[in-house]
Specification:
Blueprint lengths: L5 H12 L5 H8 L3 H13 L19 E9 L4 H11 L5 E6 L7 E7 L2 H10 L7 E8 L18
Antiparallel strand pairs: 1-3, 1-4, 2-3
Keywords: DNA-binding, Transcription, Transcription regulation
GO molecular function: sequence-specific DNA binding
GO biological process, one term: regulation of DNA-templated transcription
Length: 159
Amino acid sequence: MSKLDRYDLRILQELQHDARISNQELAERIGLSPSPCSRRVKQLEDDGYIARQVALLDRKKLGLTLTAYVLIGMDRHTPERFEHFEGVIGKCPEVLECSLVTGMDADYQLKVVVPDMEHYQAFLLGTLTRIEGVSSVRSSFVLRQVSSSTELPLEHLRA
């Protein structure tokens, strides 16, 4: 990890908050002129600190009202089993996150977003339970989202 200075950290913070900001506005907010600001953004991209820029969509407006956290248990803990599972899950658009976890009675935790319970049931029975090696599936459904952010904390990088 190369050394990030206060300007780099401010750029990352501002772009996490709103990546559509113009270079001129970004430069003004962090206290640089536009040319050096633009060069720094490019360098942060080249160095991999900025992986990509995306649009955050409103899932409710799109009719995606059901979010489930799903714990998956595998029958065998072999690299081949895990690789197969991850390959199948990686192709499922309803799975927003898939993490190999420890400290639970599960091997994977998924975050699944679908329109409703009917769609979840179809995903569960038509996809999840049919993946070779899946031995258990436990689902929890979000009643209300209290907090959500895509912004990573950067305070630990400040000198």
